């Protein structure tokens, strides 16, 4: 498991619980910046920090560290909703949105390779 994967798991759990970064960080006793860096794969958190974050999420640390854990970062119903929104746009706007999305995904992939 990479640091980026761990960050994605934490972010996905936090979002499923409908908790913002500020509240989760406060519950874990860490800074919002550190939580953001963890979620984005920019920080390599200590075991103690991860234990605090896991406890704030209401899970055991082992649940966050399981490599076989599958994350549904964007539930299928959200994908369908975004597709419907995209379909309502004129073709040139669809191309702009898709280009922006591809750029964002490429950046995320590049950052995750660095970790």
From TrEMBL:
<dbReference type="InterPro" id="IPR001387">
    <property type="entry name" value="Cro/C1-type_HTH"/>
</dbReference>
<dbReference type="GO" id="GO:0003700">
    <property type="term" value="F:DNA-binding transcription factor activity"/>
</dbReference>
<keyword id="KW-0238">DNA-binding</keyword>
<dbReference type="InterPro" id="IPR050807">
    <property type="entry name" value="TransReg_Diox_bact_type"/>
</dbReference>
<dbReference type="InterPro" id="IPR010982">
    <property type="entry name" value="Lambda_DNA-bd_dom_sf"/>
</dbReference>
<dbReference type="Pfam" id="PF01381">
    <property type="entry name" value="HTH_3"/>
</dbReference>
<feature type="domain" description="HTH cro/C1-type">
    <location>
        <begin position="10"/>
        <end position="64"/>
    </location>
</feature>
<dbReference type="GO" id="GO:0003677">
    <property type="term" value="F:DNA binding"/>
</dbReference>
<protein>
    <submittedName>
        <fullName>XRE family transcriptional regulator</fullName>
    </submittedName>
</protein>
<dbReference type="GO" id="GO:0005829">
    <property type="term" value="C:cytosol"/>
</dbReference>
